[in-house]
C-alpha cells in the first residue's frame, strides 16, 4: 500500500478532491462503497482511533440529520466496525468551501458522530508514527523557516518503507 503526504490542510483538501475524483468518486460527500477515509477523533466505544484508515461501504444520506451521513465501515484489514454508523459531514463540506468556524459552530452536532475526512492524502503531522510501503511526499513548501521545512521533509521521507517520490 501507499500514502500521499503533504504539508498543509489546504493542500490536503485539494489533493483529496483531485484523487477521489481520479478514483471514480465524483460526489462532494461520500456516496459509494470503497471510498477511503481517515478517522479524526478517537471513538473507543467503536474501536476507532484518530489516524485510523477506513473504507466506506453502503453509504447513505442520514434521513434524520442533515449534518450527517451513514455508512458501514471496514478497517484496512477488512474487519467490519459495529454496524451502520453516523458520520459528521463538516470535514467533507470543508473540501467544497472551507469554513474555519464550522467545527466550533457545530461542536454540539458532531458530538456522537464519527469525525472523519477523505484519506487519499494526509498531512505530515497526521502521518507521524505511521509508515507505508510507498509514499508520495507532495512538497508544498510547508514550514516558516528552512529548519522547519527540513524537519517536515525528514518526517515525510521516513514514512516510506520502500518507495518514495517527492513532488516539488
Account of the protein in words:
The chain is of the alpha/beta class. It folds into 2 domains: 1-15 and 121-168, Rossmann fold (3-Layer(aba) Sandwich); 24-119, no CATH class. 27% of the residues lie in helices and 30% in strands. It is built from 6 helices and 9 strands. It has helices spanning 9-22, 90-96, 102-105, 107-110, 124-127, 146-157; strands at 2-6, 36-39, 53-61, 68-75, 85-88, 116-118, 121-123, 132-138, 160-167. It has a 5-stranded antiparallel sheet with strand order 5-4-3-2-6. It has a 4-stranded parallel sheet with strand order 7-1-8-9. Strand 3 and strand 4 (68-75) form a beta hairpin. The longest helix is centred in the first third of the chain and has 14 residues, at 9-22. The radius of gyration is 16 Å and the shape is globular. The model has no long low-confidence stretch (mean pLDDT 94).
**Number of contiguous helices:** 6
Order of helices and strands: EHEEEEHHHEEHEHE
Instruction: Report the C-alpha radius of gyration, rounded.
Output: 16 Å
Mean pLDDT: 94
Instruction: Give the neighbour order of strands across the main sheet.
Output: 5-4-3-2-6
Low-confidence stretches: none
Number of domains: 2
> What is the makeup of the main sheet?
5 strands, antiparallel
> Which outline best applies?
globular
* Class from helix and strand fractions: alpha/beta
Number-wise, the strands total 9
Beta-strand share of residues = 25-35%
Termini, distance in Å?
22 Å
Percent helix range: 25-40%
